[in-house]
Amino acid sequence: MSPQSSSPASPKSSGKGTRNVLLGALAAVVVIAGALLGVRHLRFALSHEETDDAEVDGDISPVLPRVGGYVAQIFVKENQRVEAGQPLLAIDPKELDLKVAAADAAVASADSAVRSAEAALANARAGEAVARANVVTARVTRDKAGADLARDSRLFGTNAISASQLSDTRAASDEAEARLNALQRQAEAAAAQIVAAEAQLHAARDGVVERKSDLDFARLQRSYATVTAPIAGVISRKEIELGQFVQAGQTLMSVASDRDVWLVANYKETQIARIREGQPAEFTVDGYRSTPFRGRVESVSGATGARFALLPPDNASGNFVKVTQRIPVRIAVESADAAHVLRPGMSVDVAVDIRN
Length: 356
Hints:
Layout lengths: L10 H37 E16 L5 E6 L6 E2 L4 E5 L2 H64 L5 H61 L2 E3 L4 E4 L8 E2 L6 E16 L11 E6 L2 E13 L25 E8 L13 E7 L3
Helix pairs in contact: 2-3
């Protein structure tokens, strides 16, 4: 067959060749993109420690009454947000009010006892002053009687007076001496009464302090009739109804903090060697898969999680099977916002940048 008689290539074979070229180019692009993505993932894996065994943690404070009684009012509902110090419920305060009134009456009685003791002390001091004055008068009388006796004794020696007169003078001197001794004992007794009255006054004043302390305690107990939120957060596990009798220390509900939260990432012990405090972290929460968050390593636990279990493993007993342990790492949250509230217990995927 001559060259002029050969037929040109068909359009079908030309189209197939173009498609093969495009497929080859597309495959090359996919391979290159896959290689770049693989390199990126490899670099990320080499510079980060990742785990999906992590969760959001936070303060969950129980609401515990400090006094017992019947629930008179409830001011909140389940899942309601509250602020720290906000009233949550009220316990019937009638019995507590009676205790306050009794303590107040005891304070008034103690005050009256103090006033009585002060009056007794004043009387004792006045009596002691009178007794001292009587002693002074009696001493003057005794001294005069002694002088008279000395004079009459000299006169009797010169026969200037009779024996009867000397006897009368001596009797007067003895009487004055006896009266002085009696008044001195009375003065001593009056001084002792002052000491006793002062002791009674001190005891009465101490009684006032004690009664006022009882009153303050009764008022404090009365203030506990209104149970308030220990922290700001969301009411959870409300287990109280109107009219229910509660006891001091009984858990009525819990308040889960929605502000002060952090992460607890349980890393394998083989991953923990290069994790340090202050390293940055990235994480995502299952509830907000498309939203990345940032954090920073705060601390590393001093023991594995298994050591805090109810029945920690004892490798010295039974057959030993080596199990890779996990060590909790606390990570502070740095990029939380009101639109993506992190609640304790939410599942987290976290990666710590170990290059620093």
